[in-house]
Amino acid sequence: MNDRKPIFEPISTWSTQRPAKRAVVFGEQTLSYAQLEYQSNLLARYLLSKYPMHPRGRIAVYLEPGLMMPVVLLAILKAGYTYIPLSDFLPNERVLKILDDAAAFLLLTTVSIMRKTGIGKNFPSTLALEDIAYADMPATISLPVVQKTDIAYVLYTSGSTGLPKGVVIEHGNLSYYLDWFNQALWPETQAVLPLTSTLSFAAAVTQLYAPLLRGDTLHILPANILHEPEKLLTWYEQHPSGALYCVPTVWDALLRYDRQADGASRLPTTVFLSGEPVPFDLKERTFAQCPDATVYNLYGPTETTANGSFARLEKGKAVTLGKALRGSKILIVDDDCSPVSGDRCGEICIVGEGVARGYLNRDTLTHQRFFTQEIDHACYRGHRTGDLGKFNSHGEIVYLGRIDRQIKINGVRIDPEEIEIALREDHRIRHALVRKTEESTGGIRLIAYLVPESEGTISANEIRNFLRLTLPAAMIPSHFIFVETMPKLPNGKLDLQRLPQPVPSRPALSYVFRPAANELEQELIDIFQEALGFCDLGADDNFFDLGGGSLQVIQIRQLIKRRLFSDIDYTLFFDNATPHLLSFIVPYYVNDTDPVVLENDFRLPSISSEQRYFLTLDQISPAPGAYQIAFRLAFGGPLDISAMEWSIQQILKNNPVLRSRFNLNNVSCSEGDYPASDLKIVRQECAAEICTFDELSDEGLLAAAGVPEMDLELMPLIHIRFMSLSASRHILLLQVHHTVFDHDSIGLFFKQFIAYFQAYRAGDRGFELGQGKGYQHYRCWQQQCIQPTRYPQEREFWLETFAHYVHTGADASLFSPRDTLEGKNVWFTISKALTQSLMAFARSHQTTVFVCMLTAFNVLLNTFTRYRHVPIGIPVSNRMLYEETSLLGCFVNRVTYYDKYSPEDDIGSLLDRCRKRVYGLLENQTIPYDILNSDIRAHGWMDLLYAPVCFNYLSAMPSPVNCGGVDIDVKAVESDFAKVDMTLSIHEGECLNVCFNYHMAALKKDEVIRLSKEYIGIIERMTL
Q: Which residues form the Carrier domain (predicted)?
């Protein structure tokens, strides 16, 4: 063991050997070695004279980069004190926890930081450097003798108890590591290594002290320069021999920046990578872009001062952690801390002079993670890193991951338990689990799974703001996923495989990513992400570029209204379709006067307006199955029938709307009136001709199953049939009455089924999706909040709109409702290429595919059919207007659309008129259609405004899911009942699927096939 001296002693010798040499450079400011020595001695003596009651005490240091940083640190060390480094990325509450745990008697900072953070108000013993009065200091004060076993600094890292833990570094540890760096590694390149790290990272000790120990110049770069590639690389242009010490994530960003700049910038040719595993791909890209680069992989936690091993990386060779520093040793041990043999995997342990004393105030943890080991007849401390590894055939260490849950992101050590504890301090969160997710680029992000304490909405931005009070930015999760309950295995442990994955990352766009500049932009970004199903969106990301459609518009507007109390209309949204632009609009449309729902009000409405509408249609319909919604689940593989049956029972149990019974005398509905156990799955033999999924048409499946009888008063309104096509091919056909179900409920039903099916397979029979607000709450909300506030103004809008329709030529007097519902379907698919062209066309016109398809339908009707100048009926969903968008139930209303067509109209003007008209209709979609029908009759407009044709734009079904070797998918099964003369249905998907449903008394099949071809032609011409 060498006789290690405190680092300030050799640094001080340069003040006599090279007094005029520049010791520190920060921008245009400099300090010579003589000035550095004088100022650090002066401050050391001041501290000793001012605080004599705290010998060997701890001083927290909260400084921005500048000339005074090395002065302050050296002064504290010379005075025999211990410094506690702090940084501006730490929130005040975390700073206070560190100050309390470290028992710091003083906080040294600047007036600027005190003004920005207000830290002085919370920690009275705060001293600004500008306020130091050196004139009051006694003339002679001697500096104490500092031993190598004295503490130099305590650096805090993430802790699993919810409190950061302090790593105690002695002077001997620091001297050993820096001597190794300067004597063994630096001579290889002799590169100029600037200080780019904050003091709170172990990397700072190498960057700050190593050049001063050699008598070289310490270059201090501005704060956050690692995130400003242009400024950073400008410095390297001016310093061609410069080196960079950073985490792989930062280096990856610089490589990407250089590539986008076509290699015009100058990258450093010596790179020290540390703090994270180095991806092989990153190493190879480094040598591809910088063939002459020298790249080192430095490995070791804060508990080893900075690093415990190193490797020089080479092109084409595997990435390893290399070998131990000179004078240290690497062990691979088992659970009992006994070395494993050969190339077996175990925990990486580092032994040597660089290993810290332990954790401050954490004796138990210190005993668990630190031990003693003999090297060359001398006893040294060892540290169990928690990393898994093994030796390769060359004696180098191969990193294999973590033993515990600890994560490193951008060089910051993170214990997920600390984040979970912070999350649970929010009274709205019952349970929290934090995990990491690896991106395709190799980056790591945090996901927080949250179980809310109760019903209601918690925005991601609210949680972020709450966490920012106590956690640094690196510990704030990127994704917040709300779940009703944490999935468990039979033994009670969490079933991590059943946790949902985060949504896809931001797609490649033609413009650069820009983060939120303020909280309002971030809130709007969160809303965009929630509605569009992306993460990591930017403030300038355009709704249309992200593939947004009409349904997402509704959801975004409702989320803005609910969370930001701003009621913006469709035109405003589409004219300002980025979070940044909306941030200027939202504050001017504040409306926080919505009435509050009294959920315990005994005056619950008998039925919703949507249920009343479909109940009436059912009673007057000549066909009993016309208002039944059918869909099927298809299973491919070894299906566990018990799992399927249990999953269906759970859905029926937890969605009482599916077990409703109606009373037609007083027009009321009792939800959950039928016990779930009474609703059985009927097993049905398949006809011999039914053999495969692909060959089974909707009509064939419905014909095989038959139309179930559904008496609204006497029978359950859901029928379930199970059909086996073969040993590994099965179908579950469900037929549900429209009064309790709609098209969007199919996808929601499927998602619930998958969740329960996975729970059953995992043995978690206690799993239940949350008992949130049910459909009865929607009925109550509709009566209390919508009916008194929106119906009057919407009714006025529609009367004006109907009058405009009549005035501009709407005339359906040649058509009337049919006595029968005999219809047929003609299906066709719009190719993927044309679908993509249509989406691009919609984006370029700042509108949606819905508007484009409706415009094309209007052109078709007025050009190729006798249905000229007739209104078009459009089903719309009110589900997105309610706060619980995942409810099963009936939310469908109907609106009437009309736009006078002229052959002279160009497509641009048609689209613009359609867009404005549709947005107006959707702004006023809640008033029940039957109320408006009464108004139409009262004004004598019934013959003119009857809609003999309909346009229905339907959301896409969820993607298939594989559960334990069973492929499960869902599909709506379309009946051929024709409720009007013709209905055009558009089914969203990678390719748009289109169905022309026609009444056999109104149109012939050949005629409809011709219309379908003409419709395709209109779309093709539109997108040219």
A: 515-590
